[in-house]
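Hi R.,

Here's the chain you asked about this morning:
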Amino acid sequence: MRTEQFTAENNFSRADVALSERLTDYTRSALKKLFESGLVTINGRPAKPSQSVCAGDNICVQLPDPVECVARPEDIPIEIIYEDNDVAVINKPQGLTVHAGNGNLDGTLVNALLYKLDNLSGIGGVIRPGIVHRIDKNTSGLLVVAKNDKAHLSLAEQIAEKSCRRTYVALLEGNLKEDSGTVTTYIGRSQSDRTKMAVVPPEKGKIAITDYTVLDRAQGYTLCRFDLQTGRTHQIRVHAKHLNHPIVGDDVYGRKKREFSLEGQLLHAFRLEFTHPTSGERLSFTAPLPEYFQAVLKKLKLSFNLC
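And the predicted structure, written out as tokens:
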């Protein structure tokens, strides 16, 4: 158990909001547990998450020691579309989490990779071996995995330098006014819900840049291509909401209504391009849209022809 103590610099209507600005890595539910366990005090008295905080108040929080977690192999079916001694390219299905989080170590892509592959890079740590970048649980499609640290560093550098190209396809609600454009904002944790990301002021987040191109239109829907220039958490989903055209099936950033009997957002990592860490060869991979995605396009009479 370690203690973190600080003085509030501003007034806050809620203590949990004040604490969230200090403990930026904690989710809303994790902060709630700290209060429920009596680990937060304000001016020496046990605090409630809903109580107000005044500038100058002394806030003290007891933080439990982190529990060491190690991911273990599991026989989970995954599609490996390419593999060599340095990298593997995976076509991740919707519904599969990439790596562990919130204390859950089982049933992830990492567990499947540990079972299927002989080696994975160690830079990501014991719960994220091999993971250079990720895609959301309910987003399908391509991601590259590093099988050694040399490959990991090379791929991470390519992502940082924007030479690793990632192209997504999404179905949006409504009709975009422009046929193409670029969204440039700053993305950070939502102040109202720490489990979400949001467009925030520059000092509160990191720059996020997404290019988009309309592929086809139907009454009330737009099929769109997205190319990432940066890779922030939930970037395309947040930017789609920022355009006032959230992704169909996204009940976090869009409507709660389940359209077309979907289990998640219609967002697919369609193409992935990068330079091989050892050979220097430029590699390009594509993954077809999942059947449930194709079924919706067929119903709306939308055509997908992205070469």
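The chain has three domains: 2-63, 79-160, 165-300.

Let me know if you need anything else.
M.
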